[in-house]
Amino acid sequence: MSASTKLSTSVKALSYLASTHPDPQTSSKIAEHIGTNASKLRRLMSLLTKNEIVKSTQGTNGGFLLNKSPSKIDLQEIYCAIEDRKAFHLDVNKNGGRKNKFSDSFNEYFLDLFTEVQVDIENKMKKINLLTIMKNNGIKSTYRM
């Protein structure tokens, strides 16, 4: 699953949890509601639980719940929970270990450029919270703490 698909699926699942709060939801029910594969969703929910964005309850009425208000969950936090690499990743070929001043200067230029873009992406994602995304998509949150 690509990074953008994982982020989109995670946001949909979290939005569904916010719209059904305080009732725990099973991964099967969430997957059915948002139109995704339940086993892939379980992997994402495990990462979101590990990073304390959601919590899991056991038992016959068990399932997943948001662990905090949708207004306190930003896209950067979600992305960092489900991905192990930066959003704007650059893998620069170092010429197979050979020194090449011409190529190395271009690589350095793009590494610096992509580092700046990465910071811009992270800052933008920190400004967008789950509640805002839900409102923009006509979904009401029932989350109350």
Please provide a brief summary of the model.
The protein is mainly alpha-helical and 145 residues long.
Number of E strands = 2
Largest sheet: 2 strands, antiparallel
What is the radius of gyration computed over CA atoms, rounded to a whole number of angstroms?
A: 19 Å
Percentage of β-strand residues: 5-15%
CATH architecture assignment name:
Orthogonal Bundle
Low-pLDDT residue spans: none
Helix content: 55-70%
Under CATH at level 1, the class stands as Mainly Alpha
The coarse overall form would be elongated
Helical stretch count? 6
Structural class: mainly alpha
Order of strands in the sheet with the most strands? 1-2
The CATH topology assignment is Arc Repressor Mutant, subunit A
Jot down its keywords.
145 residues, mainly alpha, Arc Repressor Mutant, subunit A, two-stranded antiparallel ribbon, 2 strands, 55% helix
Structure description:
- The protein is mainly alpha-helical.
- The chain has one domain (3-136): Arc Repressor Mutant, subunit A (Orthogonal Bundle).
- Helices cover 55% and strands 6% of the residues.
- The chain has six helices and two strands; from the N terminus they run αααββααα.
- The mean pLDDT is 89.
